[in-house]
Fold this sequence. Notes:
The protein is an alpha/beta fold and 627 residues long. The chain has 19 helices and 16 strands. It starts with 5 loop residues before the first helix and ends with a helix.
Amino acid sequence: MSKFTHDDEELLKLFQSEENRRAEEEFARIFTENDNVRVAFINEDRAFTDGRNIVVDPAEDKLFSDREAIEKTLKFLHLPESSCSSWSALKLTTRSRNIHECLHIIYTKFPNQQALDKRCTTKARLMILVDIGNIIEDAYIEAVGASIYDNAEMLLKWGRVSRMFVKNPSEGTSSSRFREIGVDLDAAARLMYIQNYMGTELLYPFIKLPEPIEECAEYIERVRPLYRAGAAAPSPMERHKYACMIFDELEELIPDSEELLDRTYLENILGGTQTHSPFRCSAKPFVSEGREMAVTRRLFTDINGDPIDGKDISEQYRVFVFDAESDLQIAVAEAGAESEVIVIRGGEFDAAAIHSGIHILENHPRPDKNMSRAYSNILKKYRSTINTYNSRFERLLKADREFYEDKQLFGNGISSKNMGDVKKRYWYKKSVDIGVPDLAVLFMIDGSGSMRGERRGAAMTSSVILHEVLSNQGIEHAIVEHRAIFGEPEVRHNVLVSFHGRDTEKYNIMSIEADEGTREGLSLFWAERYLAQNSLAENKLIVVISDGLPAHVSDGIAYIPPVSIMDTRNAAKKIIRRGTKIIALALGGSGVSCYDDLRQIYSETIDCTDLKSLTGQLLKVISRELQ
């Protein structure tokens, strides 16, 4: 097979992102109603499941790079030709394979039944019984997909038809393969001819096959009704019984050695057989009896195998491709986004002269999607906590709140303080606020070396929970980690989550570190400006999360207590007078408290010696500001 072009490789790399993998995994969990299902991407030209894990190759058969096969597939399915880009083909192939394997998880018995059957006394006999079962099982689960699931038909048809065109450039290639086979075949060749013929007839009924060769015609007439009945049998045990009956009819043709069996064609039309392979069983295989379900039709025909028109799949296809192309635009934009660093001189702020030679590096890191699994693990662990706080905030925000508007020409009562108003605006009136949050919060996380260990872990976990809850409630917020580099005139502000930023920014939270010192007086002035530039909310709040006093040394100038205490206190007072509120959370842990230290700086300081209570205390601060 030919190699991909450079552009194809780049597109495939872009598609095989953690975000797309998680999207397929979430789809599989919803479809199978099983939260334990896992999905993995590979580059091995196959797809399979062991009943719990689904493995998919988005580039299977290299379809996404085969323009001719894509357009022939579209034409065959009566869909607009040239309407499918390579990206959409990747999405269609991935989802179609995913659905196919999901249907196996729901309806197929695991582990494979054939491995324990008494007929399987040699490897060749086992492989033949497994292949018969594979054909029946694939036909059945695609019949279930077409019969039961409204939106599965289009994707299952895409998977089946595209495989035909990418393996065989024209629809008639498979048909001509059977015409070219002559007579005088040995038993093993006749056996595989029958298997290939019935597999094609059952899974690709739209291919017009020639009459079977004379040597195999009688066998095919005997097994054809068994294959068709097996593919419609509602339970895995019934389908296995039909597979055994077919095996018994063909038993005399089975050779002693599996090496005489040419399974290449069958592997192609099935798209691999590892889902049903008895050779993949682990020491502790996944066990499932498979759900029973009657089918009312097959994927391309009615229950009797006669052609049917089927439903119009063009609208399903249009919506799917539209969403896929939207995903591509997002993926391209995010792939092109690089980390952005903005340099700001300390002298730009009305801070003390001690900061004039310092510069701030405002860093907007490119989200690392490799961190998504770690982020998801925290979500999973604290899901009930997040749901609880979401409920509390919803009740708080939905509650009507009464407030007063004075200096009115008429209203509910007279305000004595306005009696001297020359415009006679003596009155006040009561109004009701429906609870829309007019609040922007900037969390400033101490990134100094003393935050190592449990404090860093608590800050990271709380930030994840805070972001999830506040995002769900529509409350503006940003999360910033700050530190000052010892020996350098430099303060670094890592904007982990920005106001109104991309969703993937949340993964930056997992990169919170602990090193160096802090220069909090200067960082507060930056925080005030960042809030003003990025939010129109009337109420602005800076939440300082710290475990001690600021300390930084540069160019021989020591920014340490008591100088750093006085400077930071003066900065906080100036910012508060200008209308931005500041609250500090003093992180302790292991019996140590920095509350008294931070109280020297911030008039509103909350003691958090028990780090497990950090999230609750932070959310309590926010809820209080909303009341």
